Amino acid sequence: MTQIPDKKFRCGYVAVVGRPNVGKSTLVNTLLGQKIAAVSPKPQTTRLNQLGILTTDQVQIIFVDTPGIHQPHHKLGSGMNAAALESLQQADVILWLVDTSQPPHEEDELITSRLAELPALPKMFQLLNKSDLVNDEMLSQRRVEFARLFPQVTQLAVSALTGKGIGDLLDAVIQNLPINEPLYPAEQVTDQYEREIAADLIREAALQHLHEEVPYALAVRVDQYQERGENGAFISATLFVEKESQKGIVIGKGAVMLKTIGTTARTAIEAMSGRKVYLELRVKVSKNWRSNPAFLKQMGFTDLGEK
């Protein structure tokens, strides 16, 4: 990481935005050197903004991992977009991830229009992510294609998965942060509590094992998170789906699927918390919860957008 010439402490918010499944959460985890955000190959893994805080002797970078900006089909999608767009208005730096393994997508163009609507655009970097998946010729082609979306944008080729270009990215971010005192304790790495991260890791496990529409119709609520001293922690959580048929799929024959999700989630939570965990899961139906404002507010969405 670069040394700051003036030696004054810098601190600021860095919004990490992009369309769904472009690698935002993977990038934040890589930048922090540890996992705080759920990741899966399926879009819409991240549903609410989450902070990832990197602190050194000279700088505190507050990364805001945001939901993928997309064309919403229900109030959940509108709420996710609203959360992402709110982060843009508060950012000192914007990191706009694009997927160089594919040509520009219509949702990349949607992001372009949202960026153009900002009254004052902070320093922005267009990150050509997944650059490890393309050769030099294709990367050059993608540079031109994505630059057309926002002329004169500063581009950096990175790979959130392998760490390629991450050092240069951090240096560039630091140089554009304001001189400011730290806003969080040096040891804090996220604004979420273990209870909230556990819910994300349970949903990540469900995304990993379930297919088709079911993962996107699934929400997780942690009902109990109790410390049990030397015996670790007890976690009880409810997985909500929208239809009875989906409930059967999540549970599986002989409850095999639910046990599989539980085992994967428990392993991830233990790795995150550093202690043994007893995890109890149940499945309930909440019809059309993705379009139910009351349910969504209970799950943390305070702005449900226009849809």
Descriptive overview:
- The protein has helices spanning 24-32, 75-90, 106-116, 136-147, 166-175, 194-209, 244-251, 256-273, 293-298, and strands at 10-18, 50-55, 59-65, 93-99, 123-129, 154-157, 219-227, 233-241, 277-285.
- By secondary structure, the protein is an alpha/beta fold.
- The chain has a six-stranded mixed beta sheet, with helices on both faces. A three-stranded mixed beta sheet has the order 7-8-9.
- Strand 4 (93-99), helix 3 (106-116) and strand 5 (123-129) form a beta-alpha-beta unit.
Going by helix content, strand content and strand pairing, the class is alpha/beta
Strand content: 15-25%
Mean pLDDT over the full residue set:
84
First-last Cα distance: 43 Å
Largest sheet: spatial strand order = 2-3-1-4-5-6
List low-confidence stretches.
none
Pattern of helices and strands: EHEEHEHEHEHHEEHHEH
Computed CA radius of gyration, to the nearest angstrom: 20 Å
Total number of beta strands: 9
Contiguous helical run count: 9
* Helicity level: 25-40%
The profile of the biggest β sheet is: 6 strands, mixed
Silhouette:
globular
Summarize the structure.
With 307 residues, the protein is of the alpha/beta class.
